[in-house]
User: Fold TRAP-type C4-dicarboxylate transport system substrate-binding protein from Pseudaminobacter salicylatoxidans.
Amino acid sequence: MAFKLRITGAAIGAMIAGCAGFGVAQAQDSNVTLRLSHNLPTNNALHYGVMEPWAKAVSEASGDSIKIDIYPAQQLGAAKDHYNMARDGIVDIAFYLVGIEPGRFPIVSGAEIPFLVSDNDKGSRALYEWYSSYMDTEMPDVKVCAMFYDGGGSIHSRKKVEVPEDLQGMKIRSPNKMAAELYRLAGGAPIQMSANDAAEAVERGVVDAVSFPWKLTTSLGADRVLKYHMDAKLYSLATALLINKSSYDALSDKQKAAIDQNCGADASEHMPRAWTEYEDEGREILKNKEGHEIVSLSPEHLELWKAMSANVRAAWEKEVAATGADGARIFDELKSKLDSYNASY
Assistant:
């Protein structure tokens, strides 16, 4: 006897409901374009070696339903405004220098104390894992996707700087509060400004020295005036990739997963590698450039700078204590995390 398929009204209703649900799922994965903003030019490795590969990885993980348009060189806003830009939805994603607004984020600024980090990649993993305990409290307005260190910076100057006293009376561009405190203790006159603004200030004679990574010094043209380059990683800047919460919440589950798998500790460790290599190349460029001198520090001179950095840490701990937190304990947590990855200076 032939089998006859009987389709009931209930079955038809279920099929229609299923198709409708499928349509909703499809709509959730509709194409979306997100805007990502950062402060450096397109010839910097942050752009082509970090941001572009990250945007591509997110797009591929989403099945190409996410497109990320990148706006470099402060096109959409000044470097110091990028946290607010991500918070307020002016952009969907922002690259942010966590120390660019002195006093705003006191806990994470401790990650920029001079002579702290030796390995940028492992150090970046340590940074993210350490700050995971504090980001929801200190940066509650945004989704912190990743955190990583830049290539590390030193002092590039019009005259030779070897010991702290050599900075006496010099106007020096400082990238953050921690470096500024170090230079102030040495007798310098630190001026905090963005890298782009600092390069112009060098040309105009407004500053006598800058704290820059190596390659940034040449890519922004500061080496046309600054001929002496201290051969030491005085500091590394802590940075963050921030996502607007509403932009993230509007994504489908699959699209959120595409973002999430490119955020976190693993992403934080891998993202800065091209940037680190790029900055390391800059040392070789300046080393071989006519009229330039790489200033090596003796162990004794290096200890002078480190001793001064201990005073910077003490001042930071007092600032954090004023907020009700235990600065010494928080720093020990960070140092222990860096030590666990062999990433301490």
In short: The domain at 154-235+283-311 is CATH 3.40.190.170 (D-Maltodextrin-Binding Protein; domain 2). The chain has 15 helices and eleven strands.
